[in-house]
Amino acid sequence: MGNELLIIEDNAQNFYMMKFLLEKNGFSIIGTENGRDGIKAALEHTPRAILLDIQLPEMDGYEVAAALKTHKEMADIPIIAVTSYAMAGDRENILAAGATGYIEKPINPETFVDEIRQYLP
Amino acid sequence: MNRFCSIFRKNVFFISILLLWMTLIPSFFCGTAHARIVKIGIYENAPKVFTDASGKPAGIFVDVIEYVSKKQGWQIRYVTGTWAEGLDRVTSGEIDLMPDVAPSPERKKHYSYHQVPVLSSWFQVYAPKGSGIKSILDLNGKKIAVLDRSIQKEAFEELKQGFEMNSTLITVPDYTTLFKITRDKEVDAAITNRFYGLQYAKDFDLEDTAVIFHPSNLFFAAAVGTRQDLLNAIDTHLASLKKDPDSVYYQSLKTWTAEKVKFTLPLWIQMLGLLIMVFLIAALAGSAILRKQVTVRTRQLENVNHTLQTSEKKYRELVTLANSIILRWSVDGRILFLNDFGLQFFGYTEPEIIGKQMTDTIVPEMESTGRNLNKIIRDIPDRFKAYEQHINENIRRNGDRVWIDWRNRLIVDDKGLPKEILSIGSDITPLKQAEQKINQLNRDLQQHAQNLEKQVQDRTAELTVAMEKAQAADHLKSAFLATMSHELRTPLNSIIGFTGILLQGLAGPLNEEQQKQLGMVQNSSRHLLALINDVLDISKIEAGQLSLSFSCFDLRDSIEKTVHLVQPLAQKKALELLVEIDETVSEVTTDQRRLEQIIINLLNNAVKFTEQGHIRVVCRPEKDHYLLAVEDTGIGIHPDEISGLFQPFHQIDTGLSRKREGTGLGLSICKKLIQMMNGRIDVRSQEGKGSTFTLCLPKNCEVSHGK
Lengths: 121, 707
What we know:
The complex is a heterodimer. By secondary structure, chain A is of the alpha/beta class.
């Protein structure tokens, strides 16, 4: 299994920031700007983990997580929600939708990579 | 009558005794030689001569002889017997004088008389009532009783012979026997002198017949040729006695008989006179009685009349002066009477209104309420009971409408048909006006109440709308804040992320100045993040969207962890950070993250507002809760500030000059969170000396929280 991570994130700066940080720590990054492409990429590449933003155009994070979980080959791939949603129940809702982990934005660049590693199989 | 007589007889007896005594006294003193004893015969022929009830001689002859004896100084001795015995005694010389003797040719041979008669008398026939004897001829064939040897006997025998009548004469010894046998019908009639007859006929139920005959004079008689001195003396005194109307003689006549001494008058005139007298007296007495009765009756009537007048006056005054309207009206609605008060009240004079229809004067056709009063007035006599008390509108002459409370009484005629109505009325216009005013006020009040109710409803509706709007706005605000929070975090994520990357040297080495400036960017972005978090928290709490997640954890660990987090800041300001946790402090069930948020907030504030001294964290259990105090020796809080301390966006030294960092939301979030945990936060502070914030935290907030 490679060291490939899929980041589904519509904000270019955030994507770049995370990609930079993770690549500096030895990960290779695939990115998509929307859920549909994200699902396609996930099925195509079967990444080690998927970093999923919640607020996305067309399909939101919940739908994406739910869709991914319908694919057998996606069953063991952790989905880590990285989101700026901080309202009550957000964490519970996304975990219920099929996410493995939850990281609140803004991220702490000093601890972010360690947090991701924590969810990897 | 008898009783009357006997009283007189008694009196006469005493007078006689007195006279006797008076006649005796002089003779006694003058010597017995002059005292001549005169014996007088007595027989029963009242009232002329008789023996009274006490056995003493009495009568007119006795009175006369007593008077003469007294004058002459004689001493009288009476010898009682029958008429015949008396006559015999005179002739035999046994007595000196026999009274009541009528001279006749035959008697003249045996008796001597004086000249002046003592009495004159008539004979009369008496018979039982209804005898039918009207004239002397009716006595033919009848049995007639007569006194033995009397002059009546002689006279009647002469009449009998003259009229050739065949009547049987029965002689009796005295008058009493005479009347008795006549009453007992042993004889048909009796002849007697009128003196006796008048007095006693009634006692024997006899009536006097029209047969009157033989007038005769009566004298004292002596034996022929003897006692001439006595007879002369009698004549002398009788002559003088008869001249004086007040003499003993007339008094005696008056005493013994009702008959007047007008002997010269014919008997029928005397009788007539007597009858007229009796009639007159009876008439006078009757008229007096009648007059008296009339007077009494008149007085009674006057009294009754006076009482009636007084009473009537009283009632008239009552009616005319009463302070009520008193009205009488006929069944066809005409006014028959109206008292003064009523006249004055309605503004009419009596001639103006009496006889007029009520509807033309004091009653309006239509009441202001719309009732037809004309119809009601026509209705009253027929359906009277319904109108015994009736309130209606009336009208004064000047057109003023008034309200009268009428009490009506129906007056019926002899046949029981309605005749007139008596109405007594009181003016209740002010009452009615007050009532109307009250009704109006009531209506106003009701209207007002309805208005108020409507206002309240409107206002409630408005408030509901406003509240819904507010709630909607609240939701909107929350949604806005959530969105804003998200939208702010996204760029902040890049800022914080890249700053961290740069500071870590991941993008290449930094010089000292770059390092310093990027550090400032990092601080600012962290502060901005804290601000965003706090705003989000408060908005979540206020929108009721913040929910706690409870777990059981060790309180000591949480406290120590938070103290550890704040330690670097305290050290930087050279403040001593003391922790005193009681040995018994252990598990607590509450929202750990939020509790730690509170403790960090309090510790951060303590460090922030303290320049020197120490910060002390004390925790100990008390009953079912823990007390956790954060104490500092900082600037303290002015008493005026304490009340607003827990309000959102509050910070001491507000304004541009503030030197403390912070959002001003911390304490208000703390208070709201601790309240959600069923706990409490209190503050005690002395300005310039320090503050103590104390949390009261239930050991298990789930027990009472219910979540």
